[in-house]
Structures are given as C-alpha cells and as structure tokens.
Amino acid sequence: MQKQELSYKDTKFTVDTYWIDPLVDYEEQVDRPVVIICPGGGFKFHSDREAQPIALKFNSIGIHALVLRYQLVDDDHSVYPLSLQEMATTLNWLKTQSEHHIDLKKVILIGFSAGSQIVADFNSIMLDPEQREKIFNDELEVEPAVNVMGYPVVDMTLGWPKEDSWAMKISPDIYYWQAQEHLTKNGKPTFIWQTVTDEVVPVMNSIIYAQKMDMLKIPYEMHLFGSGSHGLSLATYVTQKPGVEKNLNDYDSKWWDLCVNWLKLQKILPKH
Q: BD-FAE-like domain spans which residues (predicted)?
C-alpha cells in the first residue's frame, strides 16, 4: 500500500492505493477495474475494518483498490460538499495513472455506513450536470460505472444521526442530508445490502434509495438480511474486533459473493 496525497483547491487529502502490479509474463497487460472505497466511522474517523480488508478482497478478484480518506467533521470543515469534491478529484486523477493499466469504464464506488452516504450523494448530485456544476467547476472526466453500499446512511432524518446538532456539523446545508431526493436518471446501477436488525442505521435508508432507483428505472440489487448488527464489514474473522462476537455472521458474510455475482452481471468482471 502507498499513500497518495491529492488536493482540491487548497485542501489536501489522502488516498491509500492498492495497485495490482503488471504481470511480467503477460505479453500484453490487462486493463483492470478499480474500486474507490469510502469507509464508515460516523464522519468522526475512517474505520480501518472497512478499508484495507475490503481493498485486499477486491485485489483478490483482480480489481485495483483505493481507499479515499475523505473529509471528516473538524473545526474548519463540514463533510459536504468537500467530500464530494474530493471524490470527483480522485476520479479525474485516475486518468493520469495509465501505468497501472486501469479500465476507466469499470470504476466502482463502494461505501459503508456514513461512507455510503458519500457514494449515494455522489450518485445523486455529482452525476447530474446541473447539480454538479454548482459545487465542482471542473469537468468530471471519469465517472463511476456502478456503486456498492453497505448498511448505508442515505437520509439523515431517518434516525442517524440521533442529534440534529451532529447532522448540522456534517452539513449545515440540509440539501446534502437526503441523497434520494436528488437522484436522477443519471444515477448508476447500485448494489445495496444491510440487515433489518441494524441497531445504528435504520434499514429504511436502504429501502428508500432502492425505491427511488426503482421509480427512475435505474438497475439495482438489494439484499436485506434477517439478522445481524451494524458495521459487519466482511462479517468474518478477518474484520472481527477481538472478542466481539457480533462482528461474525456467516449468513450475512454472503453479501460478498452476491456482490461479486452482481459485478459479473454488470460486466465489471468476466462471467467465468
């Protein structure tokens, strides 16, 4: 892993890069898909359980991976719109990385919990030219092909965060609070998964985004598992906090295989 420092205007941010090296015994190199990962953490921190383990999992199926260390709440900045501008900057930066053999038509955005709201808002706001031009002056040269959202925050009026004061710190502009309200037909196909017993982010967040996608006839696949806690990540021993049994859930861990199948349906991965 190498850290790459990028900037939007006068604000610097970091991207962790997990490139798959070219294979020297190939006569012709393969252009591989790339995923940009937005870990959760309630906009207070970036959860490592949803960073490197997810990146390496994507590497294992032949996909380059980046972890976007997006803007958190601090004394100088709110999360929005800067996190969306950072994502757009990262996407455009991919175009300069030809030595890594990236298939720019197969870019995946994946978010977990709070990180999923950045993905959802990007899909809603930043892929619509009229909305995007209000906050991002440059051309968006690289667009994602698909999105993946795990136990996502979509609408900050549905139960997370519990305090409006924290929501105001995330964004004093309520325009960014409800991603589903700004979704247009420009949105990309999306895979969503969550547990119906999620004790932190109400499952209605997933349902309302899927419902809006359905209304707009944007392809999606949603899996709501019957039990399981918030913040499962891979739901295996790989991402289990020591001694925390609720991080293990063999049933819910199937989300990964379901997601890989869906990426094949979307022609991000070959079927065989």
A: 27-212
Tell me the chain's radius of gyration from C-alpha atoms.
18
Phi, psi of 269 (to 5 degrees): -115, 150
Identify the pLDDT of residue 247: 96
To the nearest 10°, report the CA torsion of 267, 3, 90, 29. Answer: -40
Low-confidence ranges of the chain (pLDDT < 50): none
CB proximity list for 262: less than 8 A, separation 6 or greater = 191, 221
Pairing status of strand 64-69 against strand 11-18? antiparallel
> Which runs of E-coded beta strand occur in the chain?
2-8, 11-18, 32-38, 64-69, 102-112, 146-150, 190-195, 220-225
Three-state SS at 218:
coil
Residue closest to 193 by CA, chosen among 116, 270, 133, 141: 116
How high does pLDDT run on average in the chain?
A: 96
Q: Judge contact between 246 and 214, C-beta under 8 A.
A: no
| Domains and their CATH numbers in the chain | 2-21+30-265 (3.40.50.1820)
What's the CA gap between 209 and 93, in Å, rounded?
A: 29
Q: What are phi and psi of 89, to 5 degrees?
A: -60, -40
Return the half-sphere exposure (C-beta side, CA atoms, 13 A cut-off) of residue 45: 4
Q: Which residues contact 124 (CB under 8 A, 6 or more apart)?
A: 131, 179, 180, 181, 182, 183, 184, 187
Rounded to whole angstroms, how far apart are CA atoms 253 and 247? 10
CB 104 within 8 Å of CB 142: yes
Assigned token pair, 185: 């037909």
What is the separation, in whole angstroms, between the first and last Cα of the chain?
28
Q: Is the peptide bond before 22 cis (omega within 30 degrees of 0)?
A: no
Give the residue carrying structure tokens 């298939």: 103
- What's the whole-model pTM score? 0.97
Residue type, 191: F
